[in-house]
Design goal:
With about 70 residues, the chain is an alpha+beta fold. It is built from 1 helix and 4 strands. β3 and β4 form a beta hairpin. Pfam families: Aconitase.
Amino acid sequence: MQGDLVAVGILSGNRNFEGRVHPNTRANYLASPLLVVAYAIAGTVNIDLDKEPLVNAMRVAAQLQFG
């Protein structure tokens, strides 16, 4: 953690305990592979993937469809 920044890990496997990914990781979440990729593209876990589009570095939006 640096300042107010909290490092977060999102994994699709069951090795999601604190310190496993990196010693500075303070929050770990278990998710499906699709969600892991979606949060990686978004660059944040602070997004409602049901309502907000993902936007890449070129500002191109993409909406995920679940189900």
